[in-house]
C-alpha cells in the first residue's frame, strides 16, 4: 500500500451508502476529505464523526451534480487548501423505476441520465484539467454490473452505467502520456438506499431485493476503492467487477429457500 497521506480526496454522493463508506475507509489514511452531496446535514454529521474518530481534516459542501453551473461554481470556489484534488471518487448516482422501456417515466429517465452521466461528466471536466496540470491525480468512477449486462426493465439505468464504463475507458485513453489514473469499480448487488430510491420510497419492495441472500455491503466496495487509490503510481486498476458470492450475473442471485 502506497501512502496517500495529505492528499485531497473528493467524494461525490458522500452522504450515504458507498460514498459514506468510502469516506470512512479513507479517513484513517491521513487524507484530507472533501465531501459533497445534496443532503448537507448528513454530510456534516459524517464529517464531525470522522474528525472525532480519526482526526481527519474535512470540508463539506452541498452539491447537486446535475446542475452544471453549481458544479463549476462550487468547485472553483473551494478554499486554496482544498482546490488541488488528488483523488476524485465519482460516486453520485441513482436508479429510478423498473419499467418496460415503452412504459417508463421520462422524468425518471432524465434524472438517471442527468445524475449518472451528465453529473459525472460535469465534475470530471471541472477537476481533471488541474490533475493534468499538476501531473498527479486519480479518477475512480463507481459504475455497476448494469454497465456490463442489461437486464429486463433496467433499460435506461443500464444504458447510463454502460455510458459510465465507456466514459472511463475513453478518459483513460485521453490521459495516456500523463500520470493521471482512471479506475472503474463496478459493483453487483449492494445493500444501500439504492432500491429505496429506485422504488420511490417503497420500503417493502426495496427490502425484497436483498431478501434471503447475502449482498455486498458499502464497506466492501469502499475497500476496493481504497485498494485502487493506494497502488504504486505505475499501477492503474482500470476496471473491477465486484459481485457477492451469491450472485453470478445481473439477474442471477442465489436466494435461500
Protein described:
This protein is of the alpha/beta class. It has a single domain, classed as Rossmann fold, CATH 3.40.50. Helices cover 44% and strands 16% of the residues. It is built from 9 helices and 9 strands. It has helices spanning 17-26, 40-54, 68-76, 80-83, 106-134, 155-174, 194-198, 203-210, 218-229; strands at residues 8-12, 32-37, 57-62, 87-90, 138-142, 181-187, 239-242, 247-249, 252-253. The strands form 2 sheets. Strands 3-2-1-4-5-6-7 form a 7-stranded parallel sheet, sandwiched between helices. It has a two-stranded antiparallel sheet with strand order 8-9. Helix 2 (40-54) links the parallel strand 2 and strand 3 (57-62). Helix 1 crosses helix 9, helix 3 runs parallel beside helix 5 and helix 5 packs parallel to helix 6 (155-174). The termini are far apart. Keywords: Oxidoreductase. This is Oxidoreductase, short chain dehydrogenase/reductase family. Belongs to the short-chain dehydrogenases/reductases (SDR) family. GO terms for molecular function: oxidoreductase activity, acting on the CH-OH group of donors, NAD or NADP as acceptor. InterPro entries: NAD(P)-bd_dom_sf, SDR_fam.
Q: What's the topology here?
A:
Blueprint: E1 8-12, H1 17-26, E2 32-37, H2 40-54, E3 57-62, H3 68-76, H4 80-83, E4 87-90, H5 106-134, E5 138-142, H6 155-174, E6 181-187, H7 194-198, H8 203-210, H9 218-229, E7 239-242, E8 247-249, E9 252-253
Parallel strand pairs: 1-2, 1-4, 2-3, 4-5, 5-6, 6-7
Antiparallel strand pairs: 8-9
Helix pairs in contact: 1-9, 3-5, 5-6
Amino acid at each position: 500500500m502506497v501512502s496517500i497521506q495529505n492528499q485531497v480526496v473528493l467524494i461525490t454522493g458522500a452522504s450515504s451508502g458507498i460514498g459514506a463508506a468510502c469516506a470512512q475507509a479513507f479517513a484513517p489514511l491521513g487524507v484530507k476529505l472533501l465531501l459533497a452531496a445534496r443532503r448537507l446535514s448528513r454530510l456534516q454529521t459524517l464529517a464531525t464523526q470522522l474528525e472525532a474518530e480519526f482526526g481527519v481534516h474535512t470540508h463539506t459542501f452541498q452539491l447537486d451534480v446535475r446542475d452544471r453551473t453549481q458544479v463549476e461554481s462550487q468547485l472553483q470556489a473551494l478554499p486554496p487548501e482544498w482546490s488541488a484534488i488528488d483523488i476524485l471518487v465519482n460516486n453520485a448516482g441513482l436508479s429510478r423505476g423498473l419499467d418496460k422501456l415503452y412504459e417508463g417515466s421520462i422524468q425518471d429517465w432524465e434524472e438517471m441520465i442527468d445524475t449518472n452521466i451528465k453529473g459525472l461528466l460535469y465534475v470530471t471536466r471541472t477537476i481533471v484539467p488541474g490533475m493534468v496540470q499538476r501531473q498527479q491525480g486519480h479518477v475512480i468512477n463507481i459504475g455497476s454490473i448494469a454497465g456490463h449486462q442489461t437486464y429486463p426493465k433496467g433499460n435506461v439505468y443500464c444504458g447510463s452505467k454502460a455510458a459510465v464504463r465507456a466514459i472511463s475507458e475513453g478518459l483513460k485513453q485521453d490521459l495516456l502520456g500523463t500520470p493521471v489514473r482512471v479506475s472503474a469499480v463496478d459493483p453487483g448487488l449492494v445493500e444501500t438506499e439504492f432500491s429505496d430510491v429506485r422504488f420511490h420510497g417503497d420500503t417493502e419492495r426495496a427490502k425484497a431485493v436483498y431478501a434471503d441472500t447475502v449482498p455486498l455491503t458499502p464497506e466492501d466496495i469502499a475497500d476496493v476503492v481504497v485498494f485502487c487509490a493506494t497502488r504504486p503510481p505505475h499501477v492503474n486498476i482500470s476496471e473491477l467487477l465486484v459481485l457477492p458470492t451469491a450472485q453470478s450475473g445481473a439477474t442471477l442471485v442465489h436466494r435461500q429457500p
